[in-house]
């Protein structure tokens, strides 16, 4: 097992207005996820969210700390959200195993010392997507299935955005310090994952796209409402969305995405919406 760690600093919206394609991708695209037998950790300076992954094939992948965290162990001052997008797997937390099937989640609270990721079948490995944020309080570890979460039915086929939002880690489902996570599944024929676009200045967000067929991509829109930018995103890639940025995407084929949020409050509906006519 090896560890890949990157450190990404925050950017000012006035600076981003001058970014070309390469620089946009450098600062906001996360394209190093889902490497076999590698713990991938991308530390962002937006609410200090870590975007990562663990794909255990030859053996367990251990959630180890890194020097940049200045912590004795990874979750000394952090909480963790895990969603499995691959084959069946197990997350062991201080010796207690939690079996996670496809699209199931696990919240791990501050203070857990030994976290290990294991695949049930190496030929069809689990693919664990990770989000981690600073935590001030220790909440209990909790396994969340698709049957446990809140489900929002949004959009319409007429506007190409009919979708189901599965709120896996959100207030009322599981107690967290600040981390929120969930899945958005588009219906056949729909391509827009969020429309109207919105921003929430009280929270940042990360979008992780998966389930795209070979050769297909999602055009992720970001930037200020009057200064939009776009990034083409491939399968198993993520985009970091600053609090000043809108976030919306349109795919060339079917896909699913995981949203993860961190910030000042737990109010999912605390957002400023911008109709398509207001975007530039």
Automatic annotation (TrEMBL):
Cofactor details (free text): Binds 1 zinc ion per subunit.
Catalytic activity line of the entry: 5-dehydro-4-deoxy-D-glucuronate = 3-deoxy-D-glycero-2,5-hexodiulosonate
EC number of this enzyme: 5.3.1.17
GO molecular function terms noted in the UniProt entry: 4-deoxy-L-threo-5-hexosulose-uronate ketol-isomerase activity
Binding site for Zn(2+): 198, 200, 205, 247
Superkingdom of source: Bacteria
Pathway where it operates: Glycan metabolism; pectin degradation; 2-dehydro-3-deoxy-D-gluconate from pectin: step 4/5
Keyword Zinc: yes
Cofactor: Zn(2+)
Listed CDD domains: cupin_KduI_C, cupin_KduI_N
Enzyme class, UniProt record, top EC level: isomerase
InterPro entries xrefs: KduI, KduI/IolB_isomerase, KduI_N, RmlC-like_jellyroll, RmlC_Cupin_sf
Role summary: Catalyzes the isomerization of 5-dehydro-4-deoxy-D-glucuronate to 3-deoxy-D-glycero-2,5-hexodiulosonate.
Family per similarity comment: Belongs to the KduI family.
Protein name, per record: 4-deoxy-L-threo-5-hexosulose-uronate ketol-isomerase
Species this protein is from: Rheinheimera tilapiae
Name of the gene: kduI
């Amino acid at each position: 097992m090896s560890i890949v760690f990157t450190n990404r600093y925050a950017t000012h919206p006035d600076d981003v207005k001058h970014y070309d394609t390469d620089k946009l991708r450098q600062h906001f695209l996360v394209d190093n996820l889902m490497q076999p037998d590698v713990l991938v950790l991308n530390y962002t300076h937006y609410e200090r969210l870590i975007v990562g992954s663990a794909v255990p094939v030859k053996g367990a992948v251990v959630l180890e700390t890194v020097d940049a965290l200045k912590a004795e162990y990874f979750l000394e001052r952090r909480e963790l959200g895990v969603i499995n997008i691959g084959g069946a797997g197990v997350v062991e937390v201080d010796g207690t195993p939690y079996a996670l099937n496809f699209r199931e989640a696990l919240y791990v609270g501050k203070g857990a010392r030994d976290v290990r990721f294991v695949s049930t079948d190496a030929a069809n490995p689990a693919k664990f997507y990770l989000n981690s944020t600073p935590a001030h309080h220790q909440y209990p570890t909790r396994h969340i299935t698709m049957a446990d979460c809140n489900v929002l039915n949004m959009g319409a086929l007429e506007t190409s955005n009919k979708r189901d939002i599965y709120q896996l880690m959100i207030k009322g489902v599981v107690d967290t310090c600040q981390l929120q996570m969930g899945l958005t599944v588009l219906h056949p024929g729909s391509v827009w994952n969020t429309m109207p676009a919105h921003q929430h200045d009280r929270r940042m967000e990360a979008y992780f796209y998966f389930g795209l067929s070979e050769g297909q991509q999602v055009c992720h829109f970001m930037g200020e409402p009057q200064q939009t930018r776009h990034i083409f995103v491939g399968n198993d890639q993520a985009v970091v969305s600053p609090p000043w940025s809108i976030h919306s995407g349109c795919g060339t084929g079917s896909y699913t995405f995981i949203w993860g949020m961190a910030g000042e409050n737990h109010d999912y509906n605390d957002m400023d919406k911008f109709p398509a006519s207001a975007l530039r």
